[in-house]
Amino acid sequence: MKKFWCFMGLFSVLTLMLITLTSCGSSTALSKRDVLQADKKSNTITWGVKADTKLFGLMNVKTGKVEGFEIDLAKALTKEILGKNGKAVFVPVTSQTRMPLLRNGNIDAIMATMTITPQRAKQVDFTRSYFDAGQAILVKKGSPIKNVYDLNKSGKVVLGVTGSNSVENIGKFAPKARVLQLSDYAQAFTALKSGQGDALTTDNGILYGMSVENPGYVVVGGSFTKEPYGIAVNKGQKNFRNRLNKALTAVEKDGTYNKILKKWFSNVPGLNYKEMMR
Amino acid sequence: MAHIVATQWPLLLTGLWHTILCSVIALFFSLIIGSLFAIFEIMPNRVMRIIGHVYVEIFRNIPLLVITMFFFVVIPLYVTKINGFTAGTIGLTIYTSAFIAETVRSGIQSVESGQMEGALSNGLTFWQSMRFIILPQAFKIVIPPLGNQFINLVKNSSVLAFVAGFDLMYQGNMIANNTLQTMPSYFIVAVLYLVITMPLSYYMRHLEKKLA
Amino acid sequence: METVQNFINAYSWTNIHYLLQGLWVTVEVSVASIILSFIFGTILGVIRYANIKYVSAIIGFIIDLIRNLPLLIIIFFTYFGLPNLGFKPAIIEAAILAMTVFESMMIAEIVRSGIMAVDSGQMEGALSNGLSYWQGLRIIILPQALRNMIPALVSQFISLVKDTSLATIIVLPEMMYHAQIIYGQNTNYIIPMFVALAVLYFVVCYALSLIARYFEKRMSYSK
Known about the structure:
The structure holds three protein chains of three kinds.
Chain A: H1 2-22, H2 25-32, H3 35-42, E1 44-49, E2 52-53, E3 57-59, E4 66-67, H4 69-82, E5 87-92, H5 98-103, E6 109-110, H6 118-121, E7 124-126, E8 131-133, E9 135-140, E10 157-161, H7 166-173, E11 178-182, H8 185-193, E12 199-203, H9 204-213, E13 217-220, E14 227-229, E15 232-234, H10 238-253, H11 256-265
Helix pairs in contact in A: 4-10, 4-11
Chain B: H1 2-42, H2 46-61, H3 64-78, H4 84-110, H5 113-121, H6 126-156, H7 168-179, H8 182-211
Helix pairs in contact in B: 1-2, 1-4, 1-6, 1-7, 1-8, 2-4, 3-4, 4-6, 5-6, 6-8, 7-8
Chain C: H1 2-10, H2 13-50, H3 55-67, H4 71-81, H5 91-117, H6 121-128, H7 133-163, H8 175-185, H9 190-221
Helix pairs in contact in C: 2-3, 2-5, 2-8, 3-5, 4-5, 5-7, 6-7, 7-9, 8-9
């Protein structure tokens, strides 16, 4: 019995230690620091971006550099804020690492296909939307499923990707369907191919890309939600967020935004990039 | 942190249940399959030895994720439809059984070889002497490393998260994304893993003392 | 036919080169962690066995606690939790640190059980021959224990090599992460990449187990 209490005592001590280790102790110190001023001083903005998502942010295997719509836009915004010589540094993030990296100050902002939702806005501050995606579904050619409402039957299985907002939306549009979350787009698509689900859901741009690679699969029913992507910054960084919003307006006005949009999305069949011009 | 537990406990409970279920099934079968292949590896018959050796070396040297993915995406294409939980449990069983086979083999071999000869000369068959003389002694020696393997098994069951097997890690990912409170979410998951593995390792300790 | 084409495209020279770059990081992290955790694990295992008042009990408890936690979570906390305490490790440092902490505990357990399996009469013999307790441990007991432990140790090291892939969670540029980036280009590359991963991990791990079998044989001849 004595041993048991010894054990419990040690256990609680270590638990407490772990709690202090994981609590957001550092965020208070960081939130006092003005990110905008610090960035101006160092002449760099550090962005958390995707490195495994086609069109938005994908590592180029040859050069080892991340490329995509979000990367180009981040570069443009950096130049707008810091001037011509401003440097943009890119840190690859995943849905598991983006929040702790932002909180710990490893990155200044997250620009990684992150949809603005009220739930998320409790934890971070978003800029206004820089890209309006819409959610759609991808099915095998000839599938009886024609739109998202066809999935609203028990026994239907929808595949999605962990960390995306789209799985939550499916719960609203097809509450009877079962949702399986896989860890990335390629795994989710492979699961669709092997019949683990009836449809794959995520943002339309990504789905169109998949259907180009695999002609046996089509996007059906068009997009049924609006997924505004926002840049996330730490709470309390109002100056930085306002400056980002201003910079976004500037690149939209001078045509840089449209140029970048055209560069990445003009070759995606099914997606009319002209409708998205700003 | 309390807030997360309060709002997300249904997810956590489902996760805990699937992790325990998968671990128990995989533990049971991998112990049987593992011991069987361990015996194959030291049998006098050369063919059996090779079969045992090949099984162990193949399955313990490739990543668990690859084995699991094979059952999740390849088997449904050609054989039969299986869900993520089943695919993950099968993958985990095969993977762990290779490690257990290796552990048990080393245990059997560290039992003095004179004992087998003695048993055989006393008129027992190979299988009888295995069961009554060698294995009981071998298991005593291998309990601590087996304990390591069992704990590895419970934690490796997090491979289910990759194939949507609704285990603790899968739910942890979901909660982290729902709440955006990444660190506290994973902390809760870690504590729940401890709830499963701590008693397991204390039971192995107890067993070790009892048999010593 | 389409599948064959996918394999050919996926195994382009650039992709393979990129994958091998990842393999190199995997090997680097593995070797560093194997060496460090072998040293620390042996020390901890001996202390745990030696029954030093309080020290052994506390170390025993820490060993149990850490080896019962998922490695993924240890990696995560090492990278994101330590900055809270004022130490900001680079990704590769965090990976090696986390692997070492975790694997040391696993190895300590193996070492302890290996020592226990050595006949207790040997220690008495050593003591009655005028050796001190620590001398007896080092010269008589440990070498024998080590021989019995080889299979368990190697199993653990093989797990370690594959467990480095868990560090993808903190974006360590190792083999699994590089594979994910390659199949991010085209969803059809996923199966070829998984096949490549299986082969490459197999080569590394099998080499490790061959070395171990060699040592095991050699040491049992000297029995």
